[in-house]
């Protein structure tokens, strides 16, 4: 009984490590729209691994600081390949508050996707329990994926 109580308490105090990525593409469009969310403090830890010289305590305005830098970080950590071609993302907008960072990106793609490969390395070298959730809605194909520190990549046949 005591062991079960301790396990439940451990689960309550253990923080959730998750990011959320949503990919949407309408039929006939050549653009995939992505929305990405993660906790801001986790982002700062992962960004420090990407740029070891980064010192979060020395920035006054996080949004202004990351305005030109965040796309390079994101394109390295999250890779999307459509029909075997790596797609670079461009930022449509982003917001930062005390709790989370939200990115909106666009990827110009083929109008008729057949294969999609997504790789997400965000926070996987920091947290072994990391879960990077991916929701897809590509030309009416819908799926949900869970990428982890052990399984950072998934390939999907769309048609």
Structural summary, described in words:
The chain has 159 residues and is an alpha+beta fold. 23% of the residues lie in helices and 43% in strands. It has helices at residues 2-13, 40-50, 62-66, 70-77; strands at residues 18-25, 31-39, 78-82, 85-87, 90-96, 100-108, 115-120, 131-138, 141-148, 153-157. It has a six-stranded mixed sheet with strand order 5-6-2-1-8-9. Strand 5 and strand 6 form a beta hairpin. The protein is globular and about 50 Å long. The N and C termini lie far apart (51 Å). The model is unreliable at 1-14 (pLDDT under 50).
Keywords:
159 residues, six-stranded mixed sheet, globular, alpha+beta, disordered N terminus
Runs in which pLDDT lies below 50 for 5 or more consecutive residues are 1-14
Largest sheet: 6 strands, mixed
C-alpha-based Rg, rounded = 17 Å
Distance between the termini: 51 Å
Overall average residue pLDDT? 87
Total count of domains: 1
Helices, by number, come to: 4
Kindly summarize this structure in a few lines.
This protein is an alpha+beta fold.
Present the secondary structure layout.
Elements: H1 2-13, E1 18-25, E2 31-39, H2 40-50, H3 62-66, H4 70-77, E3 78-82, E4 85-87, E5 90-96, E6 100-108, E7 115-120, E8 131-138, E9 141-148, E10 153-157
Parallel strand pairs: 1-8
Antiparallel strand pairs: 1-2, 2-6, 3-4, 3-7, 5-6, 7-10, 8-9
């Amino acid at each position: 009984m005591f062991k079960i109580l301790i396990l439940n308490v451990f689960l309550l105090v253990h923080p959730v490590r998750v990011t959320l990525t949503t990919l949407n593409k309408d039929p006939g469009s050549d653009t995939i729209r992505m929305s990405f969310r993660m906790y801001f403090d986790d982002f700062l830890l992962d960004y420090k691994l990407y740029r070891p010289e980064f010192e979060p305590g020395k920035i006054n305005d996080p949004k202004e600081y990351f305005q030109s830098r965040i796309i390079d970080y994101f394109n390295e950590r999250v890779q999307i390949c459509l029909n075997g071609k790596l797609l670079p993302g461009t930022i449509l907008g982003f917001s930062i508050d005390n709790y989370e960072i939200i990115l909106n990106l666009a990827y110009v793609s083929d109008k008729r996707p057949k294969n999609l490969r997504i790789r997400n390395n965000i926070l996987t070298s920091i947290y072994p329990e990391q879960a990077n959730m991916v929701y897809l809605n590509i030309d009416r194909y819908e799926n949900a994926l869970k990428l982890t520190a052990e399984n950072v990549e998934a390939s999907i046949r769309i048609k």
